[in-house]
Amino acid sequence: MQTLQTTSLWVRDNQLFILDQQALPQASRWLDANSVEALVGHIHALRVRGAPLIGLSASLLLALLAERGLNRDALLNALETLRASRPTAVNLMNNLDRMKLALAQEDFVPALVAEALRLIEEDKQLCERIAIAGSQLVKPGSRLLTHCNTGGLATAGVGTALGVINFAHQQGNVANVWVDETRPLLQGGRLTAWELGELGVPYQLITDSMAASLMAKGQVDAVWVGADRIATNGDVANKIGTYSLAVLAKFHGIPFYVAAPQTTLDPNCPNGEAIPIEQRAAAEVTGVAGSFGEVQWAPENARVYNPAFDVTPAALISGWVLDIGVVTPEEVAAGKFA
Ligand code: MRU
To answer: Sorted alphabetically, which InterPro entries does this protein's record hold (predicted)?
Structure first.
């Protein structure tokens, strides 16, 4: 396969490398992701993360494995193992469905390579279109609040919600971005803060529990988040903590926007209750770990509840900003996603 590089994926000498998103921002290191076991391990550990990026990394690996001579049955096994690596993000399933069609072709090796490269290029274009559509909703002087990380690290392009914020910043319309640190894994505190700093977008880091008082003080003009899956009724699964922000935004009369590519829509999922939510290890809540070190603060045997995502009901969402444009609550209620 040709050499290619995005913010967090790198193919060179027919090998796949991923930028370790657990190590950022203290260390920038590329890790080998050349077997299904290695990539699934990286996905579980969130070294590769962000719904679009997970799907793209799995597709690239399949294409590379095909070039290395794996037969159709072995590739199908690899595809199904990768598909099961993250249950909530539907981009992975959507991307792998496309790869499965390529695998069914007689000349499947070039078909898989072409499809993986096409998915990368498409993702860049989807992000660009989301950013163009979404930035039109950002008024001059806006103080925006975002959760988790939805930037170039999480996609092949400029990102989703963070792409919108970046475009709006380039248009001179962003006064400040409130960055939720995003417990328990700190994607906001580590990754969004780092990306906004690199882009020169003004931001202030807050803990997740500070959003309410900021809104009460009139310091937030809009909330922008990404999505792992959008059901046909408009309910959205995203990083844990998103739902609380949506409730807070509704109470304070602040617009709450979800930015995502079409690959995040699940036409087979009628509502948020049908979205599988990944449960994660207790250690993520009893302490914290990263390139900065590892610490546990909770008692050794503390019982923990650790869902990675929550569901925001459509009724709390002001607009779904997709690559096809801004979809309104009225359009969703009329069956736009069905
Ligand atoms: O567990 P993560 O860090 O992968 O969660 C990421 C999110 O929740 C993002 O908002 C979503 O995947 C969209 S990324 C463009």
So the answer is: IF-2B-related, IF-M1Pi, IF_2B-like_C, Initiation_fac_2B_a/b/d, M1Pi_N, NagB/RpiA_transferase-like
- What is the reported pTM? 0.97
Choose the weakest-confidence range: 9-13, 186-190, 289-293.
Answer: 289-293
The ranges assigned to domains in the chain are 4-127, 137-334
| Euclidean distance between CA atoms 196 and 203, whole angstroms | 7
Q: Which of 33, 31, 37, 34 is nearest to 19 (CA)?
A: 31
Tokens of residue 273, six digits: 């209750």
Span from the CA of 222 to the centroid of ligand 1 (angstroms): 19
Mean pLDDT of 20-35: 96
What kind and span of H or E run contains 322? Answer: strand 319-322
Is there an atom of ligand 1 within 6 Å of 308 CB?
yes
Residue nearest to atom 10 of ligand 1 (CA): 226
Q: Domain 137-334 classified CATH 3.40.50.10470?
A: yes
The class that CATH gives domain 4-127 is mainly alpha
Give 137-192 pLDDT, tens digit per residue: 999 999 999 999 999 999 999 999 999 999 999 999 999 999 999 999 999 999 99
R_g of the chain, CA atoms, integer Å: 19
Q: Output the DSSP codes for 19-47.
A: E-TTTTTT---EEE--SHHHHHHHHHTTS
Q: What is the largest CA-CA distance in the chain?
A: 62
Distance between Cα 225 and ligand 1 center (Å) = 9
Q: Is 316 in the pocket of ligand 1 (CB under 6 A)?
A: no
Cβ pair 57, 44 in contact under 8 A: no
